[in-house]
Amino acid sequence: MNRTQIYLPKSQLEELKKKAISERTTVSEVVRQAIAKALFRQTTGTAEGSLESFLEAAKRINAKNKGGPKDLASKVDEYLYGGR
User: Does the residue 3 lie in any domain?
Assistant: First the structure.
């Protein structure tokens, strides 16, 4: 690892400290994770990037709280292919 220095507004540093305490880790680790996540979003075509996008989409859909058909698991082909 390489040591670096950054300047942050007091409010951001406070939030980083709170997050580090809640996750029982260091501020440095929280920053590394945030940077990795930001860089991950910029990359496309990777399996991990696709999984990240898929999970984010699933969270948005679940947040809308619109339930799907109750028999989706048993009739998945019907819903996907129109009962062919």
Answer: no
